[in-house]
Amino acid sequence: MINVNFAAMNFPSKLVENAVEQLSRLPGIGKRSALRLVLHLLKQEKSSVERFGDSFIQLIQNISYCTSCFSIADSQLCEVCADKKREQTTICIVEDVRVMMAIENTMQFKGIYHVLGGLISPMDGIGPNDLRIEELIKKVEKGIINEVIFALSTTMEGDTTNYYLFRRLKDSGVKISSIARGIAIGDELEYTDELTLGTALSSRMPYENSLAK
């Protein structure tokens, strides 16, 4: 196998080089993989590649965020928030839309969500004011919510965020729960299988119990 030094490689075309550079900015895509993808696209029908590129242009230009839970949506409200059959009094707190999708795939949760937009992480310069925490507090203060479920990753950042939210909500009178710890410490919820995640959600416990341990 010939080893290619991509850092010093002279591309045959500036167009190819630019495409490789842009694709390699994606998570998990190095320049070797990016070049393979670019060469694959060049073998496709022009109309197919145009549809591929246009899908991302349409995504950036037209994507919306739900005004209630802040998930990705095609209109003012996402499908979950717009569904009148959902339990509007139970709200599940998630890091981002990936976790929300993972929980929805379990078909175990019938309430609504609140997407924080990340986790508190001082090492990364992310504090409470960088997340949608105040929006959550305002929802609870309206008096409609009966239960708040913490469904954050079992990482240091997830635990820090859980505890901060608990301190902000503990005097609100709402029930504060956390998903069961059947999920290994350090796990990211988006990669947890549906059965394990569904069981952890349905077996949730009062958040105070996790503090006692």
Question: How would you summarize what this structure contains?
Answer:
43% of the residues lie in helices and 13% in strands.
Structural description of this entry:
The protein has helices at 14-23, 31-42, 46-62, 79-82, 97-106, 133-141, 156-169, 194-202, 207-212, and strands at residues 64-65, 72-73, 87-94, 111-115, 147-150, 175-178, 205-206. It has 213 residues and is of the alpha/beta class. It folds into two domains: 10-62, RecR Domain 1 (Helicase, Ruva Protein, domain 3, Orthogonal Bundle), CATH 1.10.8; 65-212, Dna Topoisomerase Vi A Subunit, Chain: A, domain 2 (3-Layer(aba) Sandwich), CATH 3.40.1360. α1 crosses α2 and α5 packs across α8 (194-202). The longest helix has 17 residues, at 46-62. It is elongated, with a radius of gyration of 21 Å. Mean pLDDT is 86; it is low at 183-187.
